[in-house]
Amino acid sequence: MGLLDSPYVRRLAIALQLMDVDFEHVPLSVFSHYHEFAQINPVVKAPTFVCDSGDVLMDSGLIIQYASVVSRNAWSAIPNGRKQRAMYLRLESLALAVMEKSIQLVLEDFLRPPEKRHSPWLIRVGIQLTEALDQLEAALRLHQWNFRDKPPALPEVSSAVAWTFCKRMVPTMIETQNHPVLDTLAAEAELLECFRRAPHSTLKFPVDAEISGVHNVEV
Known about the structure:
219 residues, two-stranded antiparallel sheet, mainly alpha, 52% helix
């Protein structure tokens, strides 16, 4: 459950396809459908994953871990070699950092009144986002991919999803010309069937009366 305008929800939806896990996507918003969401997961956190057993899981990374066991698909396996493992995890951690910092900026813009925004905090988060993007770009320059020969690995999925989210949700905070490798990877990934079946989108729903005034951006 969750909206595909969340990079975490979208990352999970793409990963489940690549692991050949059958699933039903329920586009519930943590804001617009708060009470409906809470009936299934009282924590109201997206993505939420309901197992066949009825157990409710949260956090896209942990859900991917669970799905990898269910599917017995080696797609999400972390490389064994020390150097390869370190690179894999570095790319993944940087992509997740980009998601986290860009979402923080989106929340400030959508949820907090302008007069209550703390400029030093916004500046700090913006610097962190820029640094994460620069580090991810540098790491990807040392990384080779070919989506024609093999499907994207999880760090490539996360990187592409994070970049697309940034371009659409915080475009004034990024400079595409400074991240040509990341931009190319995302452009190629977005053409893949698994990405096209889970497109980034912002769905519009009425907001619950009790949380009126909250804009509909999923996190």
